[in-house]
Amino acid sequence: MIASLTGTVTRILFDSVIIDVSGVGYRVFATPGTLANLTCGSTETLLTELVVREDDLTLYGFVDGNEQDLFILLQKTSGIGPKMALSILSVFTPEDLCRALSQEDIALLQKVPGVGKKVAQRLVVELKDKVDAVAVQPTGVEGTPTTSSVAVEVEEALTGLGFSAREAENAISSILKQQTDADTSTVLRKALAYLGCLLYTSDAADE
């Protein structure tokens, strides 16, 4: 079992990161929020879960122990595998997910791509009484990231994915004008969607 990795970040991809540990590059899949906290060339430590399949070994990484706990818990729901668990954690912070489950907010859970009403209901039924075991700490005023720190983290993530600094700055500025209190994960998701739309529009115009 690989419980954690400490090494040099050599590449940040759309859905994963490559970490060099003593000359061996490990690809670790992670949420946009986790990826936004990483920087190419830096030494980082990720908590990891190794998922073993008959013909595949896949690592999933987390900088937050709460995310890791929920990742494990989500997979105890019938029909929820590691990829879907990671998708859910890409949409919700640990605190928001626990709240949605405990309050039986079916509509909110359906915001995750691939989660329909039946899956959302199953998540609530099977997990609402278990999320209390996850020691999620609410984010207070003191722990709330500032707009500037969010912008810096998201820009680093976007440039690490290959976007130019100007593209990143334009996307981030557009999003933060509409939602000044958005966290890093939210801004990164919206920036990727924003840039994806721009690229699509540009390609269509070229045709």
Descriptive report:
The protein has 207 residues and is an alpha+beta fold. It is 48% helix and 19% strand. The chain has nine helices and five strands; from the N terminus they run E-E-E-H-E-E-H-H-H-H-H-H-H-H. The protein has helices at residues 32-36, 65-74, 82-91, 94-102, 106-109, 117-127, 147-160, 165-178, 184-206; strands at residues 4-12, 16-21, 24-29, 43-53, 56-62. The chain has a five-stranded mixed beta barrel. The radius of gyration is 18 Å and the shape is globular.
SSE layout and pairings?
Elements: E1 4-12, E2 16-21, E3 24-29, H1 32-36, E4 43-53, E5 56-62, H2 65-74, H3 82-91, H4 94-102, H5 106-109, H6 117-127, H7 147-160, H8 165-178, H9 184-206
Parallel strand pairs: 3-5
Antiparallel strand pairs: 1-2, 1-4, 2-3, 4-5
Helix pairs in contact: 2-3, 7-8, 7-9, 8-9
Percentage of residues in DSSP E strands: 15-25%
> Which percent bin holds the helix content?
40-55%
Would you count the extended β strands for me?
5
The largest sheet has its strands arranged as 1-2-3-5-4
What would you report as the Rg, rounded to the nearest angstrom?
18 Å
Mean pLDDT: 82
Name the structural class. alpha+beta
**Order of secondary-structure elements:** EEEHEEHHHHHHHH
Number of DSSP helices? 9
Residue runs with pLDDT of under 50 for 5 or more positions: 137-146, 199-207
Termini distance? 50 Å
Biggest pleated-sheet summary: 5 strands, mixed, barrel
Shape: globular
